[in-house]
Specification:
It contains 6 helices and 8 strands. The protein is of the alpha/beta class. It has a 6-stranded mixed sheet. A two-stranded antiparallel sheet has the order 1-2.
């Protein structure tokens, strides 16, 4: 079992910022979650990897991945902790654009069409980045079982995924940090 309280403390200490911000979705916000401060630290990567593995449980999922660059450290953390725990799990990266040479693919990594995968994300707001990752994964032939995020801002992402028949799971929501979601 991962240490939820340690990860929450780390997010509060290193990632949660208050002020005026514009999010990737274009929305204005009074707080920002700079999750690279967590996912690119050894302690944070371990905690995130353990937490997401716990949410994954057992089942048909053979790989985790998401949009490069955002999901790369999360993917690495999850597959590393899976290796430590002796669980077979691969990772994959979803490119924004194919590299123009070699395989010229959007999906990179040891995955094959027909396999069940999970999209990982640091923070879900409207779900835009993960929706693009889902589209690219499905075009490649992968079966996306769900999206797992570290933090759900509770601003529409879950509904956007549900509209495609894909559930969202999260380690935390903004409510866990005492934040009332926008529009609530």
């Amino acid at each position: 079992m991962y240490d939820r309280h340690a990860l929450m403390a780390l997010v509060r200490q290193r990632a949660l910022k208050f002020g005026d911000f514009t999010l990737a979705s274009g929305k204005k916000a009074s707080f920002y979650l700079d999750m690279k401060q967590i996912t690119l630290s050894s302690e944070g990567a371990r905690l995130v990897g353990e937490g997401i593995l716990e949410l994954l449980g057992s089942g048909p999922v053979v790989a985790v991945g998401g949009m490069s660059i955002g999901a790369d450290p999360i993917t690495a953390a999850v597959i590393t902790m899976a290796g430590v725990q002796g669980k077979p799990l691969a990772g994959f990266l979803v490119r924004k654009e194919p590299k123009g040479h070699g395989t010229n693919r959007f999906i990179e990594g040891p995955v094959e069409p027909g396999q069940s995968v999970v999209i990982v994300e640091d923070v879900v707001t409207t779900g835009g980045s993960s929706l693009l990752a889902i589209d690219r994964a499905v075009e490649f032939g992968l079966k996306v079982e769900r999206v797992i995020t570290i933090i759900d801002r509770l601003e529409g992402g879950a509904a956007a995924f549900a509209a495609r028949g894909i559930p969202l799971a999260s380690l935390f929501t903004v409510r866990d940090f005492g934040i009332v979601p926008a529009g609530a």
